[in-house]
Amino acid sequence: MTDRDSLEVSWFAALCDDDYEFLGVPNPELASSWPHCRDITLAADRNGFDNILLPSGYALGIDSVAFAAGVAPLVEQIQLLLAVRMGEMWLPQLARQLATIDHMLHGRLTINIISSDIPGETLESEPRYQRTREWMQVLRSLLNGESIDFDGEYVKLQLDPPRVRTVSGTCPPFYFGGFSPAAKDVAAEFADVFLTWPDTVASVGETVAEMTERAARYDRQLKYGLRAHMIVRETEAEAIEAANRLVSKLDDEVGQAIKNKSLDTQSAGVSRQNELREAAGDDWFAEENLWTGVGRARSGAGAAIVGDPDQVVAKLHAYQDVGVSAFILSGYTHQAECDLVAQHVLPKLNHQPLTW
Description:
Helix 3 packs across helix 4 and helix 4 packs parallel to helix 5 (181-190). This protein has a single domain, classed as Luciferase-like domain (TIM Barrel), CATH 3.20.20.30. The strands form two sheets. It has an eight-stranded parallel barrel with strand order 1-2-3-4-7-8-9-13, surrounded by eight helices. Strands 5-6 form a two-stranded antiparallel sheet. The chain is an alpha/beta fold and 356 residues long. Helix 2 links the parallel strand 2 and strand 3 (79-85). The protein has helices at residues 34-46, 64-71, 91-104, 125-143, 181-190, 201-217, 236-246, 252-260, 268-279, 309-321, 334-344; strands spanning 8-12, 51-54, 79-85, 109-114, 148-151, 156-159, 174-176, 193-196, 223-232, 285-287, 290-291, 304-307, 326-330.
């Protein structure tokens, strides 16, 4: 059971070309760009969200690190959950960039660890997660201000830490998700928050139980986060109507092409999202208030919590009751749904950034 007074509620900035009025129908005004993603981030800050995910996708939009540096001086209270792909940048430079951005945020940086393939390079799951393990270990040491003498398979580095340090002097928390055995083992040893994608409440509870056991083998404890889409309206009928409208112009071949642009289309997590959608009824609901229609045109998080405000809050509380203490939410369009969630859902939740 999770204390309902300890909950982080985050939003999503669509840096990865993932914003639509009608899913699968591109709108140039909603494409990933500095002004569009900035406006989403500022709306989430203004609306009282605790954190916002800045995703990373090589072929899908603008750069997450550069965006974080640009938007950091503009936000007032929100944290930034900055996605960085392990292996994509030179580790010492990445550590300096992250520490600098943390200063620009007055200590409000959090880090989303990404383990998908580096653009132009493909690795099998086991070696890819070994590379991620080494990068996470060395990056944490550098951000903790520790000298490095590391001789691994993918990282070979002897180096003093950079002079620039985070505001706290320690590494910001690592948010990390993955569903293969290799990914779960890396998360158990090195993550702070294990992220899962939308699933049935029972399945999320099983994941929390499994990861708690895995982390205990390393004498560690994890916090748990859920990444999900939201469609909340004043009535359930209006919410279902909005969900159906979202996919009303979707061509399945176009949806599959959109999904294939992602670098993680063959991952275990994506496979589970496909299974969830295939097991859903004709209305795309996998269980009460969990609608999988989003996954028809999206790799990764492929389901939305759909309902009236009380139903949505009850669903979030159900996930809390099986161990989730952080939600990373989004909706279409991202700024409009941000306003709706802030109006209808946030006032019913006691939330604050996670403490460490």
